[in-house]
C-alpha cells in the first residue's frame, strides 16, 4: 500500500490568488496561440452601440466566444449573421475580470471562399520560400520576338483579344495558338502538357499563358502547383495574362512577366512596327549626321596638322640649340647647389663644436637627480594620506554597519513572503508570518497579538 504523503506545510505550498491565477492563464494562452485560423458557425450574433461585434463560433460538439472590434468589422465585405459558416484569423485572449477566454478576430470571411483563399496563401508562401518568385530567376523578353506561342482555349475571347492587338501592332508577327482548357479539373494537366510541348519544340521566343477574368474558383487552374512549377522550369520566357487587372494568381508570381489582361500582354510583348520604323529612320539620320560631322572634323585636323609639319633638319637645329642651353643651365645649377651645400656643412660643423653634448648631459643629470628625490617624497606623502583616508572610511563603515547595531541587542522585522520591513504594528495582521533578524541568526514567528502606539 502506497503511503500517503504528508500535506505540505505553509512554507512549502503556494496559494494562488484568483487574479494571479487568471494572469498566468492569460499569459499561457496568449503566448501559445498568438494568431490562429478558426472555422465555425456564427451563433448569438449581436452588435451593441459601441460597434464591436460579439458572437459565438460553434461546431457540432463545442463552442467558443468571439469578438471583432469596430475597426475590423467595418472592413468586412459581407454581413455576418446567425447560422453562417465562416473562417477567421484571430488570437486567443483571456478577459481577467470574468476568467473567460475568447477569440479576438482580425479577419473574417464566408467559409466557401475562405478554403480556396487559405490554400492559395499556403501554396504562395511555400513557393516563395522555395525561391520560385525571386527576381533573379526572371528571364528577359526579346525586343522583337520572331514567334509567340499562346497557351489558351482556342475558342475563348482572350485569344481573339491578343491576336487582334498583336496583328494591329505588328501585322506579320508569327503567332501560334497552343490549345489547352483554362478551366475545369483537366485544365492544370493540359496547361502543363502545352508548356512542355512548346519548350520541347523550342522554336518560340515568348510563351503567353492567357485567360479572361473570373472568380477564384474559375482561376483555380492557374493556382495549381503543377502549373507553377512548369512555368518556373520553362526555358522560354513566360508571360502570365490571366484574369482582369485586379486578379492575381500563383502563375502571375512565377511567370517572368505579369500582364493584367491578354490585350495588355499583346501591348507589352509585341512592339509597334510603325514606331520601330520611325525609330530606325531617326537612328539612320542621326548616324548620317554624326558620320558627316566626324569626317568634316577629321578633314580640318588633317589640314591643321599639314600646316604645322616642320622640316626635320630645322627641328634638329632647334633641338641642338635647346640642348646646349639646357646643358649650360644644368652646369650652373649644379655648381650653385654644391656651393650652398658646402656652406651649410661648414656651418653645421661650427655649431657641433660650440654645442658639445657633454655640457648638456651634466646639466640633465642634476635635474634628473632632483626630480627623483622630489618624486619619492611626493609618493611617500600620497601613500600616507591614502592610508589615513582608508582607515577613516573603514571606521565610518564599521559605525554605519547595520549588523553592528543588531549586535547591540536590536533586531529587524520583515513580513513573509514579501520581506517588507515592519515599522509599525498596523502593518501586520493576526497570524501573519514574520521574520526577525537578530545579531546572530533569524527567527520565524506568527503574530498572536499586537498593540499600536504603545497600547
TrEMBL record:
Reactions this protein catalyses: Exonucleolytic cleavage in either 5'- to 3'- or 3'- to 5'-direction to yield nucleoside 5'-phosphates
Main location: cytoplasm
One term under GO cellular component: cytoplasm
Domain Exonuclease VII large subunit C-terminal: start-end pairs: 132-445
UniProt GO MF annotations: exodeoxyribonuclease VII activity; nucleic acid binding
CDD domains registered for this protein in UniProt: ExoVII_LU_OBF
Domain of life, source organism: Bacteria
Start and end residues of each OB-fold nucleic acid binding domain: 16-108
Keyword match Cytoplasm: yes
Record has Ligase as a keyword: no
Enzyme Commission (EC) number: 3.1.11.6
Pfam families linked to this entry: Exonuc_VII_L, tRNA_anti_2
GO terms under biological process: DNA catabolic process
Keyword entries, A-Z: Cytoplasm, Exonuclease, Hydrolase, Nuclease
Localization per record: Cytoplasm
Family: Belongs to the XseA family.
Primary role: Bidirectionally degrades single-stranded DNA into large acid-insoluble oligonucleotides, which are then degraded further into small acid-soluble oligonucleotides.
Subunit text: Heterooligomer composed of large and small subunits.
Name this protein carries in UniProt: Exodeoxyribonuclease 7 large subunit
Native species: Desulfosarcina alkanivorans
GN (gene name): xseA
Amino acid at each position: 500500500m502506497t503511503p500517503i504523503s504528508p500535506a505540505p506545510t505553509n512554507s512549502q505550498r503556494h496559494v494562488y490568488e484568483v487574479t494571479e491565477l487568471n494572469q498566468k492563464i492569460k499569459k499561457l494562452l496568449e503566448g501559445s496561440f498568438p494568431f490562429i485560423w478558426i472555422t465555425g458557425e456564427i451563433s448569438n450574433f449581436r452588435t451593441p452601440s459601441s460597434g464591436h461585434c460579439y458572437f459565438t463560433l460553434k461546431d457540432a460538439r463545442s463552442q467558443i466566444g468571439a469578438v471583432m472590434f469596430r475597426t475590423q468589422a467595418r472592413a468586412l465585405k459581407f454581413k455576418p449573421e446567425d447560422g453562417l459558416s465562416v473562417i477567421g484569423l484571430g488570437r486567443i485572449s483571456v478577459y481577467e475580470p470574468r476568467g473567460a477566454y475568447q477569440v479576438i478576430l482580425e479577419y473574417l470571411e464566408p467559409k466557401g471562399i475562405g478554403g480556396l483563399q487559405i490554400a492559395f496563401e499556403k501554396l504562395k508562401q511555400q513557393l516563395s520560400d522555395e525561391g520560385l518568385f525571386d527576381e533573379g530567376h526572371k528571364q528577359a523578353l526579346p525586343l522583337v520576338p520572331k514567334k509567340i506561342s499562346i497557351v489558351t482555349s482556342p475558342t475563348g475571347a482572350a485569344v481573339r483579344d491578343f491576336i487582334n492587338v498583336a496583328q494591329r501592332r505588328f501585322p506579320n508577327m508569327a503567332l501560334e495558338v497552343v490549345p489547352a482548357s483554362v478551366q475545369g479539373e483537366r485544365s492544370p494537366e493540359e496547361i502543363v502538357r502545352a508548356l512542355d510541348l512548346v519548350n520541347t519544340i523550342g522554336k518560340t521566343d515568348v510563351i503567353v499563358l492567357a485567360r479572361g477574368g473570373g472568380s477564384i474558383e474559375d482561376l483555380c487552374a492557374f493556382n495549381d502547383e503543377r502549373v507553377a512549377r512548369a512555368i518556373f522550369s520553362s526555358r522560354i520566357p513566360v508571360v502570365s495574362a490571366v484574369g482582369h487587372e485586379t486578379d492575381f494568381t500563383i502563375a502571375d508570381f512565377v511567370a517572368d512577366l505579369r500582364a493584367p489582361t491578354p490585350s495588355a500582354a499583346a501591348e507589352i510583348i509585341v512592339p509597334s512596327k510603325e514606331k520601330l520604323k520611325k525609330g530606325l529612320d531617326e537612328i539612320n539620320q542621326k548616324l548620317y549626321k554624326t558620320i558627316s560631322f566626324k569626317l568634316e572634323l577629321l578633314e580640318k585636323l588633317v589640314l591643321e596638322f599639314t600646316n604645322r609639319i616642320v622640316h626635320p633638319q630645322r627641328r634638329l637645329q632647334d633641338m641642338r640649340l635647346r640642348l646646349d642651353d639646357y646643358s649650360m643651365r644644368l652646369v650652373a645649377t649644379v655648381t650653385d647647389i654644391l656651393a650652398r651645400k658646402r656652406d651649410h656643412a661648414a656651418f653645421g660643423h661650427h655649431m657641433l663644436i660650440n654645442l658639445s653634448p657633454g655640457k648638456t648631459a651634466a646639466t640633465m643629470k642634476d635635474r634628473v637627480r632632483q626630480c627623483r628625490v622630489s618624486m619619492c617624497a611626493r609618493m611617500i606623502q600620497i601613500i600616507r594620506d591614502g592610508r589615513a583616508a582608508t582607515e577613516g572610511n573603514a571606521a565610518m563603515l564599521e559605525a554605519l554597519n547595520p549588523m553592528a547595531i543588531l549586535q547591540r541587542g536590536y533586531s529587524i522585522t520583515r513580513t513573509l513572503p514579501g520581506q517588507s520591513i515592519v515599522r509599525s504594528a498596523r502593518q501586520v495582521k493576526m497570524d501573519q508570518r514574520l521574520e526577525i533578524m537578530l545579531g546572530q541568526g533569524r527567527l520565524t514567528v506568527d503574530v498572536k497579538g499586537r498593540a499600536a502606539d504603545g497600547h
